[in-house]
Amino acid sequence: IGSSMALLSAVNLYRALGGVEKLGxxxxxxxxxxxxxxxxxxxxxxxxxxxxxxxxxxxxxxxAIGLVLRTASGPGFFVRLAAVSVIxxxxxxxxxxxxxxxxxxxxxxxx
Length: 111
Fold this sequence. Notes:
The mean pLDDT is 85. This protein is an all-alpha fold. The chain has helices spanning 2-17, 29-52, 54-68, 75-99. α2 packs antiparallel against α3 (54-68) and α3 packs antiparallel against α4 (75-99). The radius of gyration is 19 Å and the shape is extended.
């Protein structure tokens, strides 16, 4: 995987320097702030896993990142975000713990 990433990065660099691929002006301050908030949310999640467990932390982190990166508004967005933030960690817990036998850190509520 690493070799493929290095090769594709070299191809992208060659295309950018050769003028084949025109690069944009960069990211805006708002986009940089969103990226910083996402990184902060992930760092906080890593810190919270021992205290809240993997599933609750994943739910909270997915909801927080979804709110930061949202592209739509209205009640439909929040319903979908809540559904994805709750269902995805449950499916991943069942997949990793039950099917693959990988222990997942549990929180004070037992999951």
